[in-house]
Specification:
314 residues; alpha/beta; UDP-N-acetylmuramoyl-L-alanine:D-glutamate ligase; 5-stranded parallel beta sheet; 4-stranded mixed beta sheet; 33% helix
């Protein structure tokens, strides 16, 4: 196949600053330590990291026709990502977020929905989009045109063509469950945060959440638990709780996207389940050590060494 992974969904420009303890009154100015631009979103953040981890990656999404689009596409190309299936939509802004990172790592956001709301994958692009053994759909919940029947059609086709489907979402709430439930039978690895999993299922534990989603057809659930690590539940009965690494957190932006990328890379390299979880957690942990969704990750080899060297959180 032409690519190692095809990453479909939400592509965003993030503008991040830290540390931000308050917004100045009136027209005042406060001075902070760092401002960064990053390609982000549940697809954009993931694909930057899959590329850094050495996977040949195809970006499938939309940007606007503005200066933000120029930067997003240029940045992805710099990392060797194929952007030939990225749609550039006239008269619509690129999806973008301003993130004010608090000293404790919290990240209140201001978001322009933009091009990602107007994005779909036309059937005449399917041969190229599915020319990869792994297909990741990221951003359900903020993909207005793609959410719903279009996503069902897309994932059905991915499975028909024999692809492994990984899936993550964003800004999930009980209403998002209506969009997600019909997709579950076509998802091999369902990878939300535990907060999202709880909000959509109305369950209170990782075990009960997994039972809920597996019962609706998901092949496997992989939940990120923040400082508590990760939880894996497969329909074959396998259950694994993987504790977190002891990491000094600077910013949690993009940690879930990095976890997805690490897990996808682990599938690509045919790692066993426990190693896959640890590699995904090391990827997320590296991102947490800096500012933005692509911080910390350098290469596959560096991430693998980090996985081996870092201490487990007690």
């Amino acid at each position: 196949m032409r690519y190692d992974v095809s990453v479909i969904g939400l592509y965003i420009l993030d503008v991040l600053g830290r540390p931000v303890s308050r917004i100045p009154d009136g027209g005042g100015v406060d001075f902070i330590e760092e401002i960064r631009l990053t390609v982000a979103g549940t697809a954009g953040g993931t694909i930057i990291d899959t590329a850094k981890l050495g996977l040949k990656s195809l970006a499938v999404g939309a940007v606007g026709d503005d200066e933000k689009a120029d930067w997003v596409l240029g940045r992805m190309e710099k990392h060797g990502i194929d952007v030939s299936t990225m749609q550039r939509l006239k008269g619509i802004p690129t999806s973008a977020t301003i993130l004010n990172i608090r000293p404790n790592g919290e990240r209140p956001a201001l978001h322009v929905r933009g091009a990602s709301d107007h994005f779909d994958v036309p059937i005449d692009m399917y041969d190229k989009v599915f020319d990869a053994p792994i297909v990741h759909l990221g951003g359900t919940g903020l993909l207005k045109k793609l959410d719903g029947s279009a996503s069902i059609r897309l994932l059905k086709e991915a499975k028909k063509r024999g692809c492994i489907v990984t899936f993550d979402l964003i800004a999930a709430n009980p209403e998002t469950a209506k969009i997600v439930k019909p997709l579950l039978p076509f998802i091999d690895y369902f990878m939300p945060s535990i907060e999202e999993a709880k909000d959509m299922s109305r369950q209170s534990t990782a075990e009960d959440c997994a039972k809920f989603y597996l019962g609706l057809g998901a092949n496997c659930c992989v939940f990120t638990l923040g400082g508590d690590g990760a939880y894996y539940a497969h329909k074959n009965g396998t259950r694994i709780s993987s504790p977190a690494y002891d990491v000094k957190v600077q910013d949690t932006t993009g940690c879930g996207d990095a976890f997805d990328a690490g897990f996808i890379a682990a599938i690509h390299h045919r790692m066993d389940v426990e190693t896959s979880l640890r590699f995904a957690q090391a990827s997320a942990g590296l991102v947490a050590t800096g500012l933005g969704s692509d911080a910390g990750i350098i290469s596959f080899e560096h991430t693998l060494q980090t996985m081996k060297n870092w201490k487990i959180k007690q």
